[in-house]
Structures are given as C-alpha cells and as structure tokens.
C-alpha cells in the first residue's frame, strides 16, 4: 500500500490550497473532500458572493467555484500524478501508528500518510425558529441574513438590522455594525438570558440599540426574492427589519483531532504553532478549525501554505539526510 507524503482532510478553502501547495512542492498528496453530508454542514458550500477580497467578485459560489478550477487545473497539469483526490469521501477515523498516520475513510478503506493536515472547518450555529432551522434559509441564501461581520458586515449599510444572539460577543457585533455603518440596530436575545457585561450594555444604550428579549416566532418577507421585512416575537410584537445578522457561535469540526489526542482550546479549536503543527508530531491544522486565526478565506489559504511548506521542509530534510548518508558511504575511503 502506498504511503502518501501528506493526507489532507477537507477540501474547502484551506484543504484546496493545501493540496495546491503540496503538489507544487512535488509531494504526494491524498485529498479527502468529505461525504455529501460533510460538505452540507461545511461553510464552503454556503458561501455565495465574496466581496471582501480581490478576484472573487464574479463567482456565483465564492469558495466552491474557484476550488473546482484549482482541482481541475491540477488534474490536467504536470503534477497530476502527485494528487489522489477522493471526491465525496470523508475521514471517519485517524490514528498515529509509529511515524505513519492510519486513516479510515467513510467507505471503510484504510490509507497511510506520513503527515496530515486537518482542514475540516466550522459551522455557524443557526437560530431555531419554532424549533426549526428552515425558516432562516431563504433569507440566509439571499444574504439578507448574514453570519460573518468581516465578510458581509457592509451589507447592512442604510438598512435596519437585527442581530440575533445573547452573549457579549453578539452585543459587540451590534455595536461594531452601528459604529461602522451607522444603521439602526436591534439586538434579539431570541428568548435566551442576556450575558452582556455592564460596559457593553452602556454602549448599547449610547447607540440606541434596543434589546428584544422574546423569542422570534416568525420571519416575514418575500422568500423567493430573499427580501426580509420583519420578525415577529412570542409576545406578538412585530419588528420591521431589512437585514439580519446571526451571532450564536460556531460548531467546530475538531473531533478527529480530539480522538488523536491533540490539544484543543476551550471553544474546541485546535491549538497549533505558527506553521500549523499541533501537539501531535506530524499532525497539522489549517483554516477555520485552527485556534487563534481569523475565520476567512485568505487566512485559510495562508495557514494551509504554512503547513504544506513546513511539511515539505521536513520531507526534504529526511530525503537530503538519506542521500547524504548514501553519498558519504559511497565516497568513504576504502580500508
Ligand atoms: C455565509 C458565509 C459567508 C462567508 N463569506 C466570506 C467572505 O466573503 N470572505 C471570506 O474571506 N470568508 C467568508 N466566509 C468564511 C469562509 O467560508 C471560511 O473562512 C472558509 O470557508 C474556511 O475554510 P476551511 O477550509 O477552514 O473550511 P470550509 O471551507 O468550511 O471547508 C471544510 C471542508 O471540510 C470537509 N470536511 C468536514 N468534515 C470532514 C471529514 N470528516 N472528512 C473529510 N472532509 C471533511 C468539508 O466537506 C469541506 O470540504 C464566510 C462564511 C460564511 C458562513
């Protein structure tokens, strides 16, 4: 059985960039894209218009479309033998056996790799409207309800906006949106107990950000056009809004790292050094699943390149040492 230089788990922004860098470094690479279920619960699939970085404005699907182009290019390039791409296949088990990782895929097959880069990402927690997540989707798909301040905060310019969340971080999203764009903002606790610090509450008061305590029970608007009009609360109150922002935290897909024994932070993100190396030798992370980095496409790219290059440096050092040793044996004086 072949032992690949690198196995990459996940092919969103980080995984695709890791695969590109690995093959351009001339290392053999096994890429798992994830099962349809893995893809459905990843952020990559849901990202539409990307407006906060160059060269992405014309894509309909700002992550999936450029990633498909990259993988197609590799499959037609001089480096095509370097990449084995397992489409629609996920990883279910990861173990380290001496200096090789044993990887079990979603079809039960076993693979081996010297190094692993985990790029499984995160997902934003969705608000339940009358116990269902579906009511939010038509508006989220049309980006009338957004999740990422740095990616999509600018959509609220000139629009009455409701931020859904009850933690201090949600209150800060409301404050930052108001400070940046001057739009009228409401903070919807959605029936949860507020966990807002006194200083943060003072800023909400300063900016006239109203706090709605009741649960949202209905969303009104034109679902087909994705135009948001109002939220209705459990007390019957109706709030006219044109934009929504969800700030309920993230689900981190770090289970494989956890079972391997890698160190996680208190929120479940995988701790790593600047090259993406975790507490387990040979096991790297890149993209959203990594602790302490911006949750953005360009950060996913940068962390992926750091990991692939660090691994290549180790592989080259090993190969160099072997060649040097053989060279020295060959040239050793005969006695
Ligand atoms: C609505 C929305 C809009 C956004 N807009 C922007 C924007 O405009 N600009 C920007 O810079 N960022 C944006 N982001 C953030 C961006 O989506 C993420 O930062 C980026 O996708 C992170 O890349 P990643 O590779 O870490 O994770 P993802 O891109 O989410 O990819 C995760 C991958 O892991 C795979 N996977 C998961 N589990 C397994 C498994 N067990 N085995 C194998 N594969 C697995 C999935 O199939 C998927 O391929 C947005 C996010 C959201 C939610």
Q: Tell me the structural class.
A: alpha/beta
Biggest sheet: strands, sense, closure? 7 strands, mixed
Shape estimate: elongated
Q: Kindly report the name of the CATH homologous superfamily of the largest domain.
A: FAD/NAD(P)-binding domain
- Supply the CATH class of the largest domain: Alpha Beta
What radius of gyration results from the CA coordinates? 23 Å
Order of helices and strands: EHEHHEEEEEHEHEHEHEEEEEEHEH
> What is the helical fraction, as a range of percent?
25-40%
Catalogue the ligands: flavin-adenine dinucleotide
Count every beta strand, where a strand is a DSSP E run of 2 or more residues. Answer: 17
Unreliable segments of 5+ consecutive residues? none
Q: What is the assembly state of the chains in this entry?
A: single chain
Give the distance, in angstroms, between the N- and C-terminal Cα atoms.
41 Å
* Strand-residue proportion: 15-25%
Here the CATH topology of the largest domain equals: FAD/NAD(P)-binding domain
**Average pLDDT rating:** 96
Number of continuous helical runs: 9
In the residues, how many domains can be counted?
2
CATH-derived architecture of the largest domain: 3-Layer(bba) Sandwich
Summarize the structure.
The chain folds into two domains: 3-123 and 250-330, 3-Layer(bba) Sandwich (FAD/NAD(P)-binding domain); 126-246, FAD/NAD(P)-binding domain (3-Layer(bba) Sandwich), CATH 3.50.50.60. It is built from nine helices and 17 strands.
């Amino acid at each position: 059985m072949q032992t690949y230089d690198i196995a990459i788990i996940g092919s969103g922004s980080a995984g695709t960039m890791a695969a590109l860098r690995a093959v351009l470094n001339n290392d053999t690479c096994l890429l798992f894209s994830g099962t349809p279920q893995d893809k459905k619960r990843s952020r990559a699939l849901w990202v539409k218009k990307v407006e906060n970085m160059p060269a992405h404005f014309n894509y309909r699907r700002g992550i999936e479309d450029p990633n498909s182009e990259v993988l197609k290019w590799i499959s037609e390039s001089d480096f095509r033998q370097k990449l084995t791409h397992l489409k629609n296949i996920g990883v279910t088990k990861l173990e380290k056996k001496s200096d090789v990782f044993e990887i079990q895929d979603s079809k039960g097959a076993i693979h081996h790799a010297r190094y692993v880069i985990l790029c499984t990402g995160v997902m934003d927690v969705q608000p339940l409207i009358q116990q269902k997540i579906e009511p939010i989707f038509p508006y989220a798909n049309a980006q009338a309800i957004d999740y990422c301040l740095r990616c999509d905060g600018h959509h609220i310019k000139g629009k009455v906006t409701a931020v859904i969340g009850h933690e201090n971080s949600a209150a800060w999203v409301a404050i930052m949106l108001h400070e940046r764009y001057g739009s009228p903002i409401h903070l919807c606790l959605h029936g949860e107990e507020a966990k807002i610090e006194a200083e943060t509450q003072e800023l909400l008061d300063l900016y006239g950000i109203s706090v709605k305590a009741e649960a949202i029970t209905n969303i009104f608007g034109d679902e087909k056009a994705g135009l948001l009009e109002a939220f209705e609360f459990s007390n019957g109150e109706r709030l006219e809004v044109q934009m929504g922002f969800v700030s309920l935290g993230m689900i981190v897909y770090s289970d494989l790292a956890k079972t391997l024994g890698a160190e996680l932070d208190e929120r479940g993100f995988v701790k790593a050094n600047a090259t993406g190396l975790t507490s387990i030798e040979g096991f790297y992370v890149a993209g959203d699943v990594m602790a302490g980095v911006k949750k953005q496409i360009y950060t996913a790219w940068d962390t992926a390149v750091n990991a692939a290059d660090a691994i290549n440096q180790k592989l080259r050092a090993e190969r160099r040492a072997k060649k040097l040793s053989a060279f020295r044996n060959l040239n050793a004086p005969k006695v």
